[in-house]
Amino acid sequence: MENILIIGAAGQIGSELTLTLRRIYGEDHVFATDIRQAPQDIVEGGPFQILDVMDDKRLIHFVIRHKITQIYHLAAVLSGNAERIPVQAWDINMSSLMNILDLGKEVDEIKKIFWPSSIAVFGQTTPHENTPQLTVMEPNTVYGISKLAGERWCEYYNRRYKMDIRSIRYPGLISYKTEAGGGTTDYAVEIYYDAVKKNSYECFLKEDTMLPMLFMEDAMKATVDLMHADPSKLSVKSSYSIGAISFTPEEVAREIRKHKPDFQITYKPDFRQAIAESWPRTIDASVAKNDWGFEPTYNLEKMTEIMLREIEKKKK
Ligand code: AKB
After folding, report:
1. pLDDT value, residue 179
2. Exposure string for 158-195, b = 16+ CB within 10 A, e = fewer
3. Best mutation site among 13, 117, 186 for ligand 1, i.e. most ligand atoms within 8 A of its Cβ?
4. Among this protein's residues, is 143 annotated catalytic?
5. Are the C-beta atoms of residues 238 and 174 closer than 8 Å to each other?
6. Ligand 1 lined by 79 (C-beta under 6 Å)
7. Domains and CATH numbers, the chain
8. Under the phi-then-psi rule, with left for phi > 0, alpha for psi from -120 to 50, and beta for the rest, what region is 77?
9. How do residues 12-61 score in pLDDT, each as one tens digit?
10. Which of 19, 211, 289, 313 is the most exposed place for a label (fewest CB within 10 A)?
11. What is the 79 CA–ligand 1 centroid distance (Å)?
């Protein structure tokens, strides 16, 4: 019997992963937590509690009381927001991960941990096209530095303490349920909301800025598949690169115009442009594919259709 703790259940990934895991393990076995109130379906569809991952004492009580066997630690300050509060973001991203890793080391009942890394671990000196799993990594954002350090710690705890910690380097995630908060790839979510609300969008990246992205359904499947994979097949102890589709703001706008011919986009690049330019344009996900069968199914066309339809429904 698995009992799962989700940290960051109110966020973009957490609000979807909680529901996915409740369908798999049963609603009473997935404990959703966050420092803020979560969407109604999370709160009403199973146990939910306000919990601060930085509060290690409360965390350990919670884990023991609910006989937790797996932790998904999703809380983080994302790339754009982290640049506004660098030292605080470093502290939150690193201390929270170290709390979870130490908890996993101390509590024998915890058998598996999931922690998301990001394409932000790469930097200007990384090859930007078809970025390999193993390559030069010199991130120059606080978020990227914290994710790269986190990957090294995950590998260290995996090897030294024989723990089972699994991780994915998510690209930009596109979803309609909960809006992303404070990332550089967020434009690719905002653009759909503004297309529905205002039929126009002012983009904070330049029109030809290409970034790797993934539709949330594919991200959920990838996460569950990795967590269910045979441990002997997992050659990467730090974090797996995945990425499904790469596109530019102009390409999304063109796709939106197939549904909304009058849609207007304007460009006003800000500090996030430099972040985006330091990240990969396309990702080589072959190691994830070989080790645990990563196989995304959504392209830009299919995703645009779903995003516009679902956001339109929310408006009503
Ligand atoms: C961000 O833009 O900060 C995140 C990420 C790619 O990790 N979406």
Report:
1. 84
2. beeeebbbbbbbbbbbbbbebebebbbbbbbbebbbbb
3. 186
4. yes
5. no
6. yes
7. 4-172+216-241 (3.40.50.720), 174-213+245-282+298-315 (3.90.25.10)
8. beta
9. 999 999 999 999 999 999 999 999 999 999 999 999 999 999 999 999 99
10. 313
11. 6
* Ligand 1 pocket member 183 (CB < 6 A): yes
- Which residue is catalytic, options 143, 176, 187, 192? 143
Sequence-distant (≥ 6) Cβ neighbours of residue 277 within 8 angstroms: 124, 209
223-246 pLDDT tens trace: 999 999 999 999 999 999 998 899
Mean pLDDT of the chain: 97
Looking at the predicted structure, is the pLDDT value of residue 159 above 90? yes
pLDDT in tens, 71-88: 999 999 999 999 999 999
Tokens 């197939």 correspond to 258
Q: What is the spatial distance between Cα 77 and Cα 254, in angstroms, rounded to a whole number?
A: 31
**Tens digits of residue pLDDT in 240-295:** 999 889 999 999 999 999 999 999 999 999 999 999 999 999 999 999 999 999 99
